[in-house]
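Dear support,

We are seeing what looks like truncated structure output for some complexes. This example has two components. We would appreciate it if you could run it in full and send us the complete token output so we can diff it against ours.
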Amino acid sequence: MTSKINIDLSEKFQHLSKAPIVEAVLEIKTRPTAPWEEQAITQRLKEELPEYPKIESGHDFKVEFKVKPGQPTGQNSHDLGWKGLKLTSSNNLHIAQFNRDSFVLSRLAPYDSWTQFSEESLRLWHLYIEIAKPEHIFRIGIRYINRIIIKDTSLKRIDTYINIKTKNPKGLEIPVVGFMHHNTYTVPGTQYAINIISTIQKQVTQEEEIGLIIDTDVFTIESAEIRKEEIDQYINEMRWLKNKAFFGSISKKTREILK
Amino acid sequence: MRCAINLDTVYPFIPTLATGTTGFSKEADFIKKENKNNLSQLHKSFALGLGGVFIELDNVQNECSVENWDGYGALPINKTSANNTEELLNALPIGLTAPSIGAEPDGTITVGWYNSPQKALSISISPENDLHYAAIIGLRRIYGTEPFFGTLPRAIHELICLVIA
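Here is the complete output from our reference environment:
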């Protein structure tokens, strides 16, 4: 199974009126060449992003617990320096991170559209470039976490919802109480890889329902120089891959539920 | 561990505790914990995982935590370097031969694999998250630097495979 994949950006995917996306993330791992100074960057982002009024400053910490026989437990905390800022939009739907090693934008539910998400991501990314002046991108990740509510707690039938076979060991026809499936794929002829995780999350309040989670994470595996047109191309191709990964992971029945 | 000869066919299939793309939702948190729980079972194993390496890291930190720990004016272990080392260990593929841990006079930590005088690799982990590496593979001397963002860089993965093969 190493045939080259034809990424067809003109391909249309089914519109799901009950799209189960609980979080969309764009993350770009990079490294600033400009000074990474808390006061100046905080001031700049406050001025440029008034629609993100909640600003939290983050430091990297390491906490150590020391346990020795006959001695009280000791705890040491080490500040590893200023990491960056986390900004939350006034409607709490967008969380942006300007970190010394990455730019991240998360869109929480309710998800709007790819156009809205990608435009907002790129708008903030260009601001990150202005501030941090990075020269290389080490990794781009586009992650979509989907939670599909199904009213069927019998895990024996999980494969009626996703295209993954779950089978008991021969001779052990006993109930399955947990499920996690994690595959990683490389995409031949490209710089991409895909993580697909399927699992279930039991609902706390609705005992007759379970949340079927499908987490698709498309990411680059080679570093690249920062060129705007190339980033646009990466992001569009990665979007196609995450759509293929998602639609290829769900069954016809699930499509019907989400239609 | 048996190291795949052609990493093109397996990279990055090998499961590690390294993080993927970030997430903020409670579902992202749930997946992270579940994934970590599953893989950490293997990582803690002495047969498949890193077993005593984390203990060795603690010991090195303790032994080299004061100035002049080598009697020649060495700096104490840099906490950020130690933290980055822990992350690097977590990013190693399950089942990989465990490395040895050491300290440098400049306060950074080194992680190394030694097979023979002609097959050795040493990685120095800087507080800036750079992995400075030097390897001997037969007659070749290979040096370089790779940034570290939670995932084992492919160039270093390939060198480890060459050293332990």
